[in-house]
Amino acid sequence: MSHRNIAILIDGGFFLKRLPKLxxxxxxxxxxxxxxxxxxxxxxxxxxxxxxxxxxWQQHVYRIFFYDxxxxxxxxxxxxxxxxIDFSKSDVxxxxxxxxxxxxxxxxxxxxxxxxxxxxxxxxxxxxxxxLLKTREWLSALDQIPSPEGNSMPEETNLTLSPEQxxxxxxxxxxxxxxxxxxxxxxxxxxxxxxxxxxDIASLTLKQQVDTIILVAGDSDxxxxxxxxxxxxxxxxxxxxxxxxxxxxxxxxxxxQSGLPKPGTRxxxxxxxx
Length: 274
Hints:
Layout: E1 6-11, H1 12-22, H2 31-50, E2 61-70, E3 75-78, E4 83-86, H3 91-104, E5 109-124, H4 126-134, H5 163-178, E6 184-191, H6 193-206, E7 212-216, H7 223-231, E8 235-239, H8 247-250, E9 255-257, E10 271-273
Parallel strand pairs: 1-2, 1-7, 2-5, 7-8, 8-9
Antiparallel strand pairs: 3-4, 5-6, 9-10
């Protein structure tokens, strides 16, 4: 059996988001199990391409690159829950750091880490924004309150509300009561991850370090890199983890295959496109 040089590039954020949809909940609830899922996925990819089912599958692996971002470690005050949040101590940050430590110990695995920056302050979930904007007319009942003169405010204000106005204010109260901590989110943005993937694809290609690149990702940001790799004679395989593929990316790959079973099935992973 001929020796292959295969690089597997994994978009970590995408992989971790899709994984719970591909395996049972108890199959990815610890860092050890997540790392094992990554290993099994890579092993299946190598077997699909080489037909080598022995324990020496890693001899065909040039390197497994795992791309993600260091968790945001800042602090903020939640506007709805009225509590201070230290993001560096969150469950997400703890799990990410544990996963990174576990992957660093894996054979032929290289971490490529960007970072998460705060781009904006707290924002409301778009599906609630439209609802809240519609409540502006409900506040017409408060027009009866006289405008303050200077810094003075009336000691007492009596409002006479029609049934419609009363109902509108009650709806407004009920709407605000439905807002919880998940309604808003801090404007965090991942930086440097896609750039690292693109650079590594270019470097692996131009230095002729591999003959095949397997990219585990789900968007079309990597079309230029995929096109360049194919022009230089590199076989470019995409694993979208059973997510629908954008047509822009589909036409610039040599193959589409999955390293994990299809959601809702126990069937082994299979090639989807030759």
